[in-house]
Amino acid sequence: MSSQQPAPRRFLPEVQALRALAVLVVVAYHLEPRVVPGGFVGVDVFFVISGFLITGHLVREARRAGRISLPGFWAGRVRRILPAALTAIAAVVVGTLVFAPVTQWGTIGQQALASVFSVQNWVLAADSVDYLAAENPPTALQHFWSLGVEEQFYLLWPLLVVLALLLGRATIRGGRRSGGPRGLRPGLLALFGTVTLASLAYSMWLTAAGDPAAYFVTPTRMWELGIGGLLAVVMAGRADGAPARVPRVLASPGMRSLLVLAGLAGIGYAVIRYDGGTPFPGFAAALPVLGTAAVILAGRTSGPLSLNWLSDHLAIQWVGNVSYSLYLWHWPILTFFILIGDKEPRPLESVGLLGISLVAAWLSYRFIETPARTFRPLASSNIRALAVGAAAIVLAAVLALVPTVGQQQVVAAENGQIQQLRNSPPAGFGAASIETGAAFASANHQIVPTPASAHGDYPDLGSCVSSGASHLSHTCEFGAKKGDAKFTIALVGDSHATQWWKALEPMAKKHNWRIVTHLKNSCPFTGAVRTAQKVGFIDCVDANKDRLDDLVADQDIDAVFIAGWTGAPIKGGHEAATQGAVDYWGKVQDSGKQVILVRDSPNPSQDPLARDCVAKHADDLRQCGKDRDEALSNDDWISAAQARDPRLELLDFTDEFCTQKLCPAVVGNVLVYRDQNHISDTYMATIAPAFEQQLSRALRGSGLAGRAGLDG
Fold first, then answer.
1. Peptide bond before 281: cis, by omega within 30 degrees of 0?
2. Entry pTM
3. pLDDT in the model for residue 183
């Protein structure tokens, strides 16, 4: 450790080039994910840069003045961040009201409000672990999650610098500039290092646990910004004003160039080799984070290996300048293209969207970002800037409420007609019209449930349905009491078993049955292992073993009704799925219980979701249906398991959902699907007569009709 760094530079073109790289790989990932499957790591590059620049600014102020002006720092963030961000949020809200179906208004309103208050990452984290919200389609504001992480960092980080100043017993001598407060650097290294290490450990633990919230929550990301902060402290030099000493090897221009190349190689590897299946952030994020830190640490290079010719290029520096605005605007532009066109962009269309995004970024940078930073009334007063920022946030929050309120008003306006249809359903209501495939059973073209409220049309069994991540599978009892019931049936499986509740419960009530539930989201009842279990997103193996033991041991159960989602990827494919089902279901059958299976319900339209399509194309609902063969394209390992063990009874209700050619989204005034793959409660209730007919036939064939009260 002998050589010294050159005097600090005010402008760092290599950092600006890193900004350009970060935003371009993020944009490329969103437009053409097949080309750069790991392009999401561009966000991690941004985090390191932000931590480095913000910490450098705070350290310089602390050394110069012996204190940190928190109002001044936060006012600077207000001028830099809020104007373009709030403009983008407002544009998305207006665009949603104009172009998006009413089904999406509430979600956009919620995310707009979260984006205004910089907590979008926490909303997405909550949705990721909420089974009912986890599969919501991405919105035009989803990318604000990373801005939320950064802005929460901006609230915490200066407080740590203030604490370091207090711990170092800072002094200002006679108002004159001095070498800076004593003890600042060790205090910063200790505090920043503690936060960074704690965040890294938590990130690795939560990611390894498979919690999808790990991607979004601030504690798993703070270490990435912290690495940038530590780098800024180290590169800022000692408290006496002398520049930092660096390893002799980095004094060589050639070695610094090699360090840059190594850092870029690490980032590039992550961009190309990582994908949606990579556990992230956790340990995997270290590669792009350390790669970014290496490029910053190397600083200005020279010699034949130097990339100055590239980083200094006017186009690269221009993209770096507009990177914030480009990040803000590219995603809404893409999502509205998909929304309006009902399709993903083709490669040439992606190029066009990139061009539009660059133009939007330049306009935003030229007419919003830059003027806001230099507007004299705000630049001259921190208090005024904070007050204006607070007022702008309040106005944006009010605007963010408009879509949610609008959706509620639409639903309320239709409630009267809906209630009338429910109370006095016309002939052909729901599944009764499936033979003709008629969307409406009468002149009343009201749809039940309304597409805007369909997400809530599900069996609310509360804690009786365990979460996928839970280690346990709760058991509940419904209907007749244990001592009074002559017949007990168990309802077992995942959410695709739960959706049959609206058909099973009326039959059980009619015949005084007892129902025992073993329901766990994302966990079909089988000995096979879901792929998601391998990466930790769910915990099914132990819960399924417990369910098997309970079912085999419970001698009061007469029949076991099993359903499951066959679209879930299974480790080992079709053969493993079939054999795993046969192994478990055969043991239940061997214990003296009749196992009754149901073929999985057909898949609805996914792009857009059936309910969104219905809201958007109410005048041509055939667009929202799905070809029967395609809707039944899931791996039907349930039927395959029954074929392998004929003792198992199989019920097939496909003809209650589909005509010979089409599986419609609306049948007899009823919306068939409430989300990506679940049947609405309302439609399931209209299947109840056919359900009772098929289940009764199965029980008679098994000799259980008398016990079940079906002899009459």
1. yes
2. 0.88
3. 63
